[in-house]
Every structure is written in C-alpha cells, then in structure tokens.
C-alpha cells in the first residue's frame, strides 16, 4: 500500500470524532454489526465513520486484497521471508488447496492420538511412570497461542498439569522445573524452525535436567515444528514430532 493511500486514511481518521459523537449521529450504528457462520460481530464501538469505512474498502481494493487472499488460500508462497505457504488455513478447513486439509487432518489425528496416549498412560516416562506435568517451551506465538488455549480451557481439563516457559533467563525455567519430578515430566518444544535461540537454549537446559536425574530423555520430548527433520536431529523421535502449518 503506497504512502499516499495511508496518508489519506490518516487524514480522514483524524476527523472521525469521539464514540459519543458517532453514536449521537447514529444511535445504532447497525451497519457495523453482522452475523455470519454462527458468530456475532459488533464493530459499532470502533472509531470508524462511513467515510473512513468506504476509504478503507477502497484501499483494500487498490492492493487487490481479494486476489492475495485467494492466493494464500490456494497454497501459494506468500511468506516472502521464508519462501513458504501459509498453511494454517487448512486447519480451519478454508484452504482451496485440496491436499492441505488432508495433511492438516492427519496432523490433528496424530496430535489427538498422542494426547490420548499421554492421558491414558500408553505414553509414559522413561521409568514407566505416568506423565503428570507438561512444560511448553516456546516464545512469541509458540508461547502465547498455547497459553491462550490453556487459559480458555483449563477449567474443563482433567489431565496432566500444564506449565509454560518462554523467558531465556534461566530463573524462569529453573523455577518451573524445581516444582516437578523429572520422571513424570514431558517437555513440548515449540519452534517453527527448531532453531529459535531462546527456545532451544531452554530446551537444552531442560533436557539436561532430565538426564542429570538419570532419565533417558527421549520419551519425555515432543516437538511442535515446521522443521521435523531438524527436531529429529536434535533428538526428538519422528513419531513425537507434530508439524506446524
């Protein structure tokens, strides 16, 4: 999007007015409320008036956003820095690339099986004990996403306790591990490239914690990554690698 378009949007947005003024002029602002796919979305309390809304639509059309979205949905390479497609649409069933939803479902099925094996005692630690605690080691989206999901669902869980470590400061990891038993702890190492400095530093330290306690670390490791080959080289069994999309 060129600078002239952005400057035009900024100029219009500077004169939108307060929410009180917007509701005084239009008490319902119904044009910013919609229902779709079972979701009720209310944008009426955003600082947007009709003029700004129309200019935002024009700005989107000026960069051909519809075609860009179609390319993303079809599995085209749209991540220019990593030269890869954006595959997470397949997890929502909205990808138009026929193969992507099948691959996504395969990974979900693998994740469900692994989770059920852990909860049901099929997958155990190296001493044969049940897994009672899981530590997610990640940073950025590999931390915030799982933290959000856990916060939303924790009142409904009855499985192992979940912990999160993201800070490269060793105190964060050490404080977490000090409360846990190595024989009953599972490490989930979440990194798209499996080379993220903070994550891999913590993962190495946590693996050493397992081995210092006499554990054979392999049963205690799970990788969530877009680079399963790198994870396998690091020491995570292929069957315990779940793939990013």
Properties at a glance:
9 helices, 2 domains, 9 strands, 245 residues, alpha/beta, two-stranded antiparallel ribbon, five-stranded parallel sheet, Rossmann fold
> What form results from the Cα inertia axes?
elongated
Order of helices and strands: HHEEHHEEHEHEHEHEHE
Which residues sit in consecutive blocks of at least 5 with pLDDT less than 50?
none
Instruction: Classify the helix fraction into a percent range.
Output: 40-55%
Strand order of the largest sheet: 6-5-7-8-9
CATH superfamily of the largest domain: Glucose-6-phosphate isomerase like protein, domain 1
Give the termini distance in whole angstroms. Answer: 27 Å
Number of domains: 2
Text of the CATH class of the largest domain: Alpha Beta
Rg to the nearest angstrom?
Answer: 23 Å
Mean pLDDT: 92
Number of strands: 9
Helix and strand composition category = alpha/beta
Q: β content, as a range? A: 15-25%
What is the count of helical runs? 9
Q: Looking at CATH, which topology of the largest domain would you report? A: Rossmann fold
| Name of the CATH architecture of the largest domain | 3-Layer(aba) Sandwich
The biggest sheet amounts to:
5 strands, parallel
Detailed description of the structure:
It is elongated and about 70 Å long. The strands form three sheets. Strands 6-5-7-8-9 form a five-stranded parallel beta sheet, sandwiched between helices. The chain has a two-stranded antiparallel ribbon with strand order 1-2. The longest helix is centred in the middle third of the chain and has 22 residues, at 99-120. Helix content is 43%, strand content 15%. The chain contains nine helices and nine strands. The chain is an alpha/beta fold and 245 residues long. The protein has two domains: 3-91, no CATH class; 98-243, Glucose-6-phosphate isomerase like protein, domain 1 (Rossmann fold). Helix 1 runs antiparallel to helix 3.
